[in-house]
Design brief:
- With 152 residues, this protein is of the alpha/beta class.
- The protein is elongated, with a radius of gyration of 19 Å.
- The chain has a 3-stranded parallel sheet, sandwiched between helices.
Length: 152
């Protein structure tokens, strides 16, 4: 509640919106990501608690955008990130990584009045990666998948 009180004067009580950037994969572990996954999970929880706290005196909304792996200056410092990024790119349904402008568009939407009914949510922007872990090309590898298709 202390955070709510400290921030309440900074936000329009009728139309305010706060959006933070989380990650799409807080429920799985990545050895090279260190403590960032649990930190982002705590951030997701904070979004819900802030939304609840502010609801007692305003209509300010709190949400998170949860993108898949992105090419950013911050990610460049993570050991082994390029390998993880390339794997994640192949795990998307479109076989193409999420772009930062796609994430920015989602943030702009959540900050706009068009998203007025969305509160205390994490909007996953992962190009379908979260439903595609058992893609044939990922499980068997590209050469085995090609061999299986040519023999059918």
């Amino acid at each position: 509640m202390a955070v709510s009180n400290a921030l309440s004067d900074l936000l329009d009580p009728d139309h305010g919106s706060v959006v933070t950037i989380s990650i799409s994969t807080t429920r799985m572990t990545a050895e090279n990501y260190g403590y960032m996954a649990p930190v982002k999970a705590a951030l997701d929880s904070s979004v819900c608690f802030l939304a609840k706290s502010f609801s007692s005196f305003s209509h300010v909304r709190f949400n998170a955008v949860c993108p898949g792996l992105l090419k950013t200056s911050a990610s460049a410092g993570i050991p082994g990130y390029v390998d993880s990024f390339l794997y994640a790119e192949q795990a998307t349904l479109r076989k193409q990584a999420v772009q930062t402008d796609e994430v920015a568009a989602a943030v702009a939407f959540l900050l706009s009045p068009r998203s007025s009914g969305i509160n205390a949510q994490g909007l996953v922007i992962d190009a379908g990666m979260g439903v595609n872990y058992f893609d044939d090309q990922l499980v068997r590898g590209p050469s085995e998948t090609d061999d299986a298709e040519s023999s059918s």
